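pls design
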């Protein structure tokens, strides 16, 4: 399967929002948030384009303002029709590569404690769970904080 992992361009935004809805349903970012991520984080808004030009997955991250040795993976996901083909793994590793190339020494991400798939993908890419924060995204929305460290990745 040929996959092009590339930075998003403005013309991707409509398809990116459709992908976001397919991945996250009622929790999808609105178009306005994707637009602002695009404006602010463009090189680290990565889409996975498959044959035929379809966007099968995406990920977004960025360096922490005021603490540029720390990067964040804010979200990533794969269209349900394209799961199980290592796209999640490839997108996450591409985000790590890009953030490290611009100075990140550690990268953080949050994962729901019941999101086994995402936890597995993160652990496979070298993240480890370092903390659980109750109500991180509001009541009942606990999150595991996952950390990737350059020194631990060799
Ligand atoms: C998490 C997600 C991106 C995984 O994408 P994917 O392309 O299917 O995952 P991959 O094929 O790259 O799998 C990588 C590893 O994770 C494991 N994995 C993937 N889905 C899994 C599942 N549902 N349960 C258990 N393990 C799973 C794979 O077995 C593989 O493990 P291995 O390296 O030991 O072989 C996808 O399920 C998704 O989009 N989920 C909804 C959005 C989401 O939760 N995003 C993350 C939080 S923002």
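designed seq:
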């Amino acid at each position: 399967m040929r996959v092009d992992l590339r930075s998003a361009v403005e013309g991707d935004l409509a398809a990116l929002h459709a992908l976001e809805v397919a991945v996250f349903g009622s929790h999808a970012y609105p178009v306005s948030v994707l637009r602002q991520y695009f404006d602010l984080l463009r090189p680290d808004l990565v889409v996975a384009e498959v044959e035929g030009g379809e966007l099968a997955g995406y990920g977004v991250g960025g360096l922490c303002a005021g603490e540029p040795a720390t990067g964040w993976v804010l979200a990533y996901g794969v269209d349900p029709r394209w799961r199980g083909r290592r796209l999640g793994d490839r997108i996450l590793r591409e985000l790590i590569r890009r953030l490290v190339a611009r100075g990140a020494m550690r990268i953080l991400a949050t994962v729901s404690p019941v999101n086994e798939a995402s936890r597995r993908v993160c652990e496979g890419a070298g993240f480890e769970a370092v903390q659980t924060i109750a109500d991180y995204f509001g009541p009942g929305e606990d999150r595991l904080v996952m950390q990737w460290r350059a020194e631990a990745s060799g």
